[in-house]
């Protein structure tokens, strides 16, 4: 018997999109038929209790960090390139129903494409990841999507275009740095409190690289540069009919909401697909939602290192 789903993985309402200009839909709630199916919890099919999600994009755009941040709630500073494919399973409860996401983290290196592409087939969602500080990674997003779609039916796959490293903006770094400086000054002015010089070093380490990189046109970017690449990303999202998100694995900004959105939309799509296949017309005819699925019996992680 599986333990209950963690409280922070319970979804009771449809999460909002990141941008109404590039969203799969902007409805405030789940489809009425989906809510009815979850309330009744009857009949024989459990195939929609699982969704396969593949994550693609250039090397070092932050695919693994994005998944790790969501699963572990922390940022992993020790970067390790994915070799082949990594596989993770994340359990949810959506509208009171057990649901699992298979997260397939694929390698971005060219030499591993032959391995990764073999795992593209059968996806319910494709997440194309790019680096908000790298225009080239956004330009390559279209090709990554085309490669993934060769193995899938365009009519049955949800697409997401995700910009990572949102924190790498001078504008985003300054407020945090100001807080650190003010904290250091306050300590210094308080005679009864011993301040640490390390606090000032932390401030300098935070702010100096931002200004140097900005002056050299490297990442981090200015808010204006970030806005420009986001506008281009939204245009691409509209063109390929994908939902756009901007997140930061380092700060955690937007990560939880994004994966909750992916889980909710794939769950909704799977339920509606099952309803259509079964030809159900009455609430009691629809789908049985059980606690035991093939997804839950799948190993939590696996790697592939060969073609």
UniProtKB/TrEMBL annotation:
SUPFAM superfamilies the record matches: P-loop containing nucleoside triphosphate hydrolases
What Pfam families has UniProt attached to this entry? Ras
Q: Which GO terms label this protein's molecular function in UniProt? A: GTP binding; GTPase activity
Keywords for this protein: GTP-binding, Nucleotide-binding
**Coiled coil regions in record:** none
Matching entries from SMART domains are given as: RAB, RAN, RAS, RHO
Which NCBIfam families would you find in this protein's record?
small_GTP
Under PANTHER family, the record lists: RAS-RELATED PROTEIN RAB
Q: How is this protein named in the record?
A: Ras-related protein Rab-34
């Amino acid at each position: 018997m599986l333990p209950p789903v963690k409280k922070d993985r319970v979804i009771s309402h449809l999460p909002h999109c990141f941008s109404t200009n590039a969203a799969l839909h902007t409805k405030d709630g789940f489809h009425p038929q989906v809510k009815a199916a979850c309330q009744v919890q009857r009949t024989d099919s459990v195939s929609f209790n699982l969704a396969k999600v593949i994550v693609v994009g250039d090397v070092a755009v932050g695919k693994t960090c994005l998944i790790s941040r969501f699963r572990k709630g922390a940022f992993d500073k020790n970067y390790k390139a994915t070799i082949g494919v990594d596989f993770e399973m994340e359990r949810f409860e959506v509208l009171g129903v057990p649901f699992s996401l298979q997260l397939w983290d694929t390698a971005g290196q060219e030499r591993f494409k032959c391995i990764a592409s073999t795992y593209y087939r059968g996806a319910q969602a494709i997440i194309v990841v790019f680096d908000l500080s790298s225009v080239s990674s956004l330009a390559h997003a279209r090709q990554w999507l085309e490669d993934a779609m060769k193995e899938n039916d365009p009519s049955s796959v949800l697409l997401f275009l995700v910009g990572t490293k949102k924190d790498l903006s001078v504008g985003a770094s300054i407020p945090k740095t100001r807080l650190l400086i003010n904290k250091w000054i306050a300590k210094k002015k308080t005679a009864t409190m011993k301040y640490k010089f390390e606090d000032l070093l932390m401030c300098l380490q935070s702010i100096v690289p931002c200004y140097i990189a900005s002056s050299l046109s490297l990442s981090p970017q200015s808010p204006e540069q970030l806005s420009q690449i986001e506008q281009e990303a939204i245009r691409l999202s509209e063109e390929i009919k994908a939902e756009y998100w901007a997140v930061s694995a380092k700060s955690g900004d937007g990560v939880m909401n994004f994966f909750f959105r992916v889980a909710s939309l794939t769950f909704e799509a799977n339920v509606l697909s099952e309803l259509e296949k079964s030809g159900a017309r009455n609430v009691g005819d629809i789908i049985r939602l059980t606690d035991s699925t093939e997804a839950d019996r799948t190993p939590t992680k696996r790697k592939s290192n060969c073609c």
